[in-house]
Amino acid sequence: MADAIQPRYRALVLLAAFASLRFGELAGLRRADIDLEQRIIRVRQAQAELATGTLRLKLPKSAAGVRPVAFPEPIARDLETHLRWFAEDGPDGRVFVGPRSGLLRRSNFHHLWTGALTKAKVRRVRFHDLRHFGNAMAADAGASTRELMHRMGHSTMGQGAGSEAPQAGPERHSARGLGTQGHGLDPASETTMAQAGRISRLTWAL
Question: Rounded CA gap, 110 and 97, in Å?
Answer without folding.
Answer: 14
